[in-house]
Amino acid sequence: FLGIVGNQIGMATYVVGGFVRDLLLGRKNYDIDIVVEGDARYFAQTFGRYFEVTCVEHKEFLTTSIFFKNGLRIDVATARTEYYEEPAVLPNVEMSTIKKDLYRRDFSINAMAIKLNQEEFGLLLDFFGCKRDLEKGVIRTLYPLSFVEDPTRILRAIRFEQRFNFRIEEHTLELLKKYVAQNYLERVTGQRLRDELEKIIEEPEPIKAIKRMDELGVLNHLFPHSLVDAETLSMLKRYFNRKRSSSPKPVYILAMILLRESSPEKLDSIVKRYGFPKKFPDWIRKAMSISRELKKIIVKGEQLSYRIFFETVRKPEPEILWFIDAFLDEENSKKFQNYLQKLEKEKPKITGSILIDKFGLKEGKEIKKILDKLQLAKLEGLPDDEE
Ligand code: CTP
After folding, report:
1. With a 6 A CB cut-off, is 153 part of the ligand 1 pocket?
2. 108, CA 20 to 30 Å: which among 126, 181, 283, 290?
3. What is the CA(45)–ligand 1 centre distance, in A?
4. Predicted pLDDT of residue 85
5. At a CB cut-off of 8 Å and minimum separation 6, what does 90 contact?
6. Residue 329: pLDDT above 70?
7. What does pLDDT average to over the chain?
8. What pLDDT score was predicted for residue 187?
9. How far is CA 351 from CA 1, 39, 355, 371, in A?
10. In angstroms, rounded to a whole number, what is the distance separating the alpha carbons of residues 61 and 70?
11. Using CA atoms, how far apart are residues 246 and 141, in angstroms rounded to an integer?
């Protein structure tokens, strides 16, 4: 129907980008990006005469989003040549034809279009050997300044390479390394980098991409002085395998693991750059001190018990909890999770106010000690009636 609307108002209409790539790869993709050779807003308004949709215009990018009631969204853009006023900032746009529009895109695999107008419905537009690259499994930029104009493409290249098991083409890889070394990632706002990192984390196998970022020197430009050793990799593996919906933002846990040996000053600059919570350095400090304690006990050959967890960890903030969990092996992680559940469920019946009102104790440290003892006894199986 998009093509019919295009015909009605005399606009060439294409579906482009990731949707076309995934269609050719036989992968599901519900992100529909439309490019029209004409006014995107007018196209969307005309489309809206036939369906119950809401259109939201983003004037500066010459795009309009069409929202359906069922949640489906279609983005319509005016074919454009992007020109960047200075590298690494968002582009200005001007009208252009579909070929130029496709040429300004990140990689050849994302630079194909399919025509939707009635007379040529289904025609694949492949100006730059894109389909061949897709078949060969190659990530290739289309023009030399691609990474300069948008350094977030450095992270996108790695994400697509790892997602599809492709390889970054040799010349593209050279350019990527060159601009990483010339600090082009540092020119991008922390928020945009964080968005890209979060997309990498959402991939089915984020560790592959993290390793690749390390290998290409990218990681050190995102998180200077990050530590990638065997312990880092095993913590990341455990975290990503166990990650559940209850996990706090995974980007915090990733950064905590990578930066666990960093100095407070370095952590402060990371907090500023990425807009992390102010508590971030404190989380690392606490998580590391608990992990060291637990490590000592493990190294001595002692079993981690509920008592030990209660005495060292107590009830940590979620960020610290997930860090410690990643630090523990399978068996101890299970124990730790059981401990946390039990701590939540098995609260002593006797409370501080009962101790004050019924037993005549005075507020203060003594009461806390008694409550702690009771809590620990509960964890270790004290029945209610013995309290
Ligand atoms: N694009 C680009 N440069 C970027 C981001 C996007 O050229 N830095 C273009 C690409 O043509 C891409 C399209 O915009 O295909 C849509 O971008 P996006 O939705 O971010 O990515 P997809 O390619 O759809 O990938 P994903 O499957 O991860 O959503």
Report:
1. yes
2. 181
3. 24
4. 64
5. none
6. yes
7. 90
8. 96
9. 67, 68, 6, 7
10. 25
11. 38
Is any ligand 1 atom within 6 A of the Cβ of residue 196?
no
Single pTM value for the model: 0.89
For residues 227 and 259, the answer to whether their CB atoms sit within 8 Å is yes
- The Cα 362–Cα 367 span in angstroms is 8
Q: Which has more pLDDT, 341 or 362?
A: 341
For 149-172, write each residue's pLDDT tens digit: 999 999 999 999 999 999 999 999
Ligand 1 within 6 A of CB of 105: yes
Q: Is 108 in the pocket of ligand 1 (CB under 6 A)?
A: no
ipTM of the complex: 0.97
123: region left, alpha or beta (phi > 0 left; psi from -120 to 50 alpha) = beta
pLDDT category at 364 given cuts 50, 70, 90 is: confident
Minimum CA distance residue for ligand 1 atom 24: 18
